Structures are given as structure tokens and as C-alpha cells.
């Protein structure tokens, strides 16, 4: 299954958009891209998923490049409560990497 | 609250003892996953069930670990002869696999401390 690459950490100012990138260059044509986040001491929380088209829900937007080799999770107006580790995963076997630790600063 | 529950939330045990954890998934979900997570790391896949069938086990799952999902509902994870290296958060997740999609919903986890 495909492997993902994410930056280990990012900072974002409160109220600004947080853009979290993920590379998945070996993704197969039928594999979905999933994003989860984990706030300290809690279980991971599902955020959003997509296959080819961009997706938006009440939590975030997901932009997938046309070649599907990378994607970006967008939190449009980050709040302090969005501070968490964000995981990008592809396919159905759900192997988690180290994720991106997002810190939202006042 | 995702609808996935785990019990107990915390377990402290002495090395060499056996422990059992329970996971109750969302009722209509056909898949159930177990993960282990240590501090600073992402969740590590251990095993998963499709209904009552255990379809995959990680090589991390030594012979001291066993998981069951009788009747395709709740699941148990047992660790025999616990070691200090087993100390971790054990996470359960469930999903409804349909049309290639597989969004997982996680429980709060069981934190195991082996003394």
C-alpha cells in the first residue's frame, strides 16, 4: 500500500488558515486519502477523506492534486483547539506514520 | 464521543500478569481494528477483523497477544505474561467498509502500565 510523507511539525497563527501537506506519490488509483487528528491523550478523530475531487466538510477542506500524488488539508480559521497531531493515510489498511504536529499560537 | 467504547480506560498490572481489554464498536460497523500507541509515535496497527474473521495480524502481535471478536460484535484483546515493554495506549477503531471507503472511528483507548 501507499506510503505517506508529512512534515513533522508546523505552526499557525490563531484565526489564520492552516495548510497541512501530505505526499503520497505511490498511491493506487482506487485508494482514498484519509485525514485524522489526535489531540493529546485522546484517540484519533476522523476529519475528512477524498478520492479524486476536492472535498469540504464542517471541519476542513481537502485538496488533492490532479495526479493524486499529494494532498493538502486546510483548516480555514485555525483555533487553539486545533492544536493536535494530524495524520494523512492512504488506502484501507490504515498504517499511521508520525504525522504533523500542528501548533496553533495566539 | 464517537460511539466506540473501550474498557477499562486505565490498567495497571505487574509484570507477568495477564490482562484483557474490551472494545465495543459502532453496532453496524463490519470492521474492527486494534492499534498500539507509545508516547510520541503514531498508532501501530496490530490486527483487524471483518465481522468475526480475523483477517490480518501484524508481526508486532507476538504469541502473547490474542484477539477475538465473537459473533462479529465486541472484541477482546488479551495480553499474556505482560512485560514492561507492553506499556502503551491500546486503541480500538471500527468502520463500515463500503464502496472502497473505510473511515475509522476510534475509541478513547485503554492505557496499560506494566510495573
How would you characterize this protein structure?
The complex is a heterodimer of chains A (106) and B (115). Chain A is mainly β and 106 residues long. Chain A has no helices and nine strands. In chain A, strand 5 and strand 6 form a beta hairpin. The relative contact order of chain A is 0.35. Chain B is 0% helix and 49% strand. In chain B, strand 7 and strand 8 form a beta hairpin. The model of chain B has no long low-confidence stretch (mean pLDDT 93). Classes of the chains: A mainly beta (106), B mainly beta (115). At the A-B interface, strand 4 of A face strand 10 of B.
Oligomer category: heterodimer
Poorly predicted segments of chain A: none
Helix share, percent of chain B? under 10%
What characteristic shape of chain B results from the CA principal axes?
Answer: globular
Strand content of chain B: over 45%
The count of DSSP E runs of length 2 or more, i.e. the number of strands of chain A, is 9
Task: Note the main sheet of chain A.
Answer: 5 strands, mixed
Question: What is the rounded Rg of chain A?
Answer: 13 Å
Terminus-to-terminus distance of chain A = 39 Å
Task: Give the biggest sheet of chain B.
Answer: 7 strands, mixed
Determine Rg of chain B (CA atoms, Å). Answer: 13 Å
Structural class of chain B: mainly beta
Could you report the average pLDDT of chain A, rounded to the nearest whole number?
A: 92
Number of H- or I-type helical stretches of chain A: 0
What is the helix tally of chain B?
0
- The coarse silhouette of chain A is globular
Give me the strand/helix succession of chain A. Answer: EEEEEEEEE
Largest interface: A-B, 21 and 23 residues
Strand content of chain A: over 45%
User: Which secondary-structure class do the elements of chain A indicate?
Assistant: mainly beta
What's the N-to-C terminus distance of chain B?
A: 30 Å
Amino acid at each position: 500500500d501507499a506510503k505517506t510523507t508529512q512534515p513533522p511539525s508546523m505552526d499557525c497563527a490563531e484565526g489564520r488558515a492552516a495548510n497541512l501537506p501530505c505526499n503520497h506519490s505511490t498511491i493506487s488509483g482506487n485508494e482514498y486519502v484519509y485525514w485524522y487528528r489526535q489531540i493529546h491523550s485522546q484517540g484519533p478523530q476522523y476529519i475528512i477523506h477524498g478520492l479524486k475531487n476536492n472535498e469540504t466538510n464542517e471541519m476542513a477542506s481537502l485538496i488533492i492534486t490532479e495526479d493524486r500524488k499529494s494532498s493538502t488539508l486546510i483548516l480555514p480559521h485555525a483555533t487553539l483547539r486545533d492544536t493536535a497531531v494530524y495524520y494523512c493515510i492512504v488506502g484501507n489498511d490504515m498504517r499511521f506514520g508520525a504525522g504533523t504536529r500542528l501548533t496553533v499560537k495566539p | 464521543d464517537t460511539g466506540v467504547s473501550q474498557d477499562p480506560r486505565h490498567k495497571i498490572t505487574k509484570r507477568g500478569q495477564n490482562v484483557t481489554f474490551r472494545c465495543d464498536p459502532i453496532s453496524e460497523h463490519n470492521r474492527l481494528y486494534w492499534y498500539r500507541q507509545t508516547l510520541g509515535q503514531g498508532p501501530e496497527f496490530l490486527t483487524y477483523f471483518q465481522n468475526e474473521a480475523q483477517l490480518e495480524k501484524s508481526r508486532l502481535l507476538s504469541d502473547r497477544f490474542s484477539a477475538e471478536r465473537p459473533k462479529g460484535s465486541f472484541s477482546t484483546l488479551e495480553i499474556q505474561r505482560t512485560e514492561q515493554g507492553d506499556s502503551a495506549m491500546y486503541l480500538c477503531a471500527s468502520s463500515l467498509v463500503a464502496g472502497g471507503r473505510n473511515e475509522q472511528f476510534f475509541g478513547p483507548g485503554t492505557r496499560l502500565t506494566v510495573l
